[in-house]
Please model this.
Amino acid sequence: MLDALLLAVASDHSICGRVRVEHFNNAEKQGRAVARAVLGTLQAYEYIYSFWSDQYEHKLEYVGFARSWERIVLRGSSGSRKFLAFYLTQGILQAVFGLNRGGDPELEADAELRVCQDLIRGRNRLSESALADDRVDLRSLNPAPRS
Ligand SMILES: Cc1cc2nc3c(=O)[nH]c(=O)nc-3n(C[C@H](O)[C@H](O)[C@H](O)COP(=O)(O)OP(=O)(O)OC[C@H]3O[C@@H](n4cnc5c(N)ncnc54)[C@H](O)[C@@H]3O)c2cc1C
Model:
């Protein structure tokens, strides 16, 4: 039975596709998913992946998963090493990379990268100019908050 449960949480993700994710946040979420399944609650695993990495003075955060993309749109400044990079295919957001910006999507409810998880989950076509414009609140781009 345990084999079946492990296979269940490792199967295709409805948004990110089939991918083996070896990061802390996913390990925690998948553990919870398995525990819920053991207790009788079978749910699709739809967590939008995230991971962080601290590299010397720089903080990297990434949400979603992009194996390929058509466009990368920046919000912020690469020169100041503080920006969000949006990975888009046909206007649909696949993933977002934050360098020294975006907050912690797992711990901060108002973090930009938490909003980005919702944008990825929403699967709406997004305006590149709105994504790039710091005056546009990312929350205004997507009506579907995390449940
Ligand atoms: C150097 C390094 C840096 C990393 N940095 C990051 C990072 O910055 N951000 C990030 O998101 N992820 C990072 N990761 C990945 C992250 O550590 C893993 O994705 C995460 O720890 C996986 O958690 P887990 O519980 O699935 O497995 P593990 O943390 O590997 O835990 C498995 C546990 O099972 C035990 N075990 C194994 N076999 C048996 C057995 N037969 N019987 C009993 N116990 C057993 C092991 O001893 C271990 O304690 C890093 C990994 C490494 C190696």
About this structure: The helical segments are 2-10, 24-38, 112-122, 128-132.
